[in-house]
Amino acid sequence: MAPYEPEQDTSGTGELRAGRRKAARYVVPVAVAGVAAATIGLVPALATSGDPDLPDVTAQELIEKIAASDTQQLSGNVKISTDLGLPSFGGDMAGGFAPGGGGSDEGGDGKGSAADPQSKLMELASGTHTLRVAADGPDKQKLSVLDDAAEYSLIHNGDDVWAYDSKSNEAYHSKAEGKGSGERGSGEKGSGGKGSGDKALPEGVPSTPKELAEEALKAVDDTTSVKVDGTAQVAGRDAYRLVIKPKQTGSTVGQITVAVDSETGTPLKFTLSPAGGGSAVVDAGFTKVDFGKPAASTFDFTPPKGAKVTEADEAKAGTHRFKDGGKEFGGKEFNGKEFKGGQDLSGLNVIGKGWNSIAELELPGGQGLPTGGSGDVPADAQRLLDSLGDQVSGKFGSGTVFKTRLVNALITEDGKVYAGAVTKDALVKAANAAK
Questions:
Q1: Whether 289 and 338 share a structural domain
Q2: Which of 107, 148, 259, 283 is the Cys-Cys partner for 45 at CB 3.0 to 4.6 Å?
Q3: Mind listing the pLDDT tens digit for each residue in 9-65?
């Protein structure tokens, strides 16, 4: 098996950075879906067995192997678990606040769709889920979320992107960006990049080990240690274990472990462990994988008889309004200011570097969050804020730190936000230094 290897100092290794940059250009073609949140377990996503005896490799060589991987065809099952430490409120709170979610009403016109990927795939942000994936080049991908009695599928086939929710018998249809207009995506065809029109697919949290590994490799710099830490067997295939760790203190990330297929260089499993210990925050890996060409019929889709079909253009026509006790939000006054759902946050600034980077920005209107007593926040949302928040103070004044097991955010009383994968103390320090 590959031996334990001293930590590799990346500060003077241009080759490692070059390999990392090259790796970031390759995105596995099963990237048909993401989540509209910025973060995605409870138990290991899959069992690993044995320590296969493989030729020794260095971290640099393994990164280059990932970069050289050009997996265009595959099929299999992925088990993904996420544990951000968020409280459970029951019901469909998340869906109710997501665009197009079952609890939202787009201007009361009933144009919301239970099959809208932007809301449906929010479910991957918590709990454990089994996905069935398939890919045949950059223009054909399919991802299905499997439940006990239902299935949700997202299919990209050439010009068309279809989503179907069997539970509600609803379908959602859109055109791949650039199709029909002579435009193409920016990725190179055949490279597995996000080109060939698939930019129209939902983006956000990666949903496969390959995508997750690409994001981790982007963080490799002189603040990071990288080493090969033995071998494993994942989904019946021999793999190397690549371990990525922050060198800095103050990050909530403990380490990232990527199991890399020894033959193809394709990441088979991704695990993000928190610095505070306990279960993984993200654990995603193949339980079954086949690198052969999927059947062409895999990517065929016709809405079942009687299914409600929503076109993407129709869904975007309305303005989202969230309701609580008959009160509407969206295009209405929020904390004394008009707040629109799509309003941009302003004044973005990045403090620090590497794993300790903190985003500094301002809330719309330059005010802090409304308090529960003001009645401006839906009851479920206020309960979420109260359960996650810690009151803090310093040179910056006072504010509240909202916590997950990975990303924390400080919102000050004057509407400043400091957020990152860092500890509460690091956020307070950054806010004090900004004054």
A1: no
A2: 283
A3: 444 445 544 444 433 333 222 222 222 222 222 223 333 446 899 999 999 999 999
**CATH for 31:** 2.50.20
> Residue 12: CB partners within 8 Å, gap ≥ 6?
none
Q: How many domains is the chain built from?
A: 2
Same domain, 284 and 337: no
Q: How buried is residue 346: exposed, middle or buried, by Cβ count under 10 Å (0-12/13-18/19+)?
A: exposed
344/270 same-domain check? no
Kindly tell me the burial class for residue 370, based on how many C-beta atoms sit within 10 Å of its own C-beta (0-12, 13-18, 19 or more): middle
| pLDDT greater at residue 433 or residue 203 | 433
Residues in Cβ contact with 229 at an 8 Å cutoff, skipping those fewer than 6 apart: 4, 5, 241, 242, 243, 257
pLDDT in tens, 49-61: 468 999 999 999 9
Domain coverage including residue 407: 324-434
Contact between 144 and 151 under an 8 Å Cβ cutoff? The reply is yes
User: Tokens for 244?
Assistant: 């990525």
- Residue finishing a domain among 265, 282, 299: 299
Answer with the residue of higher pLDDT: 103 or 312: 312
Judge if 338 and 277 occupy the same domain. no
Place of tokens 């339980």: 287
Q: Where does the pLDDT of residue 140 fall: very low under 50, low under 70, confident under 90, or very high at 90 and above?
A: very high
Query: In whole angstroms, what is the distance from residue 24 CA to residue 40 CA?
Result: 19
Q: In CATH, what number is assigned to the domain containing residue 328?
A: 3.30.310
Q: Are residues 137 and 77 in the same domain?
A: yes
Model's pTM, two decimal places?
Answer: 0.72
Distance between CA 264 and CA 318 in Å, rounded? 46
Helical (H) or strand (E) element with 284: strand 282-290
pLDDT at 75 over 90: yes
My answer on whether 264 and 334 are in the same domain is no
Token pair 């909202």 is found at 402
Q: What is the pLDDT at residue 85?
A: 84
pLDDT reported for residue 231? 96
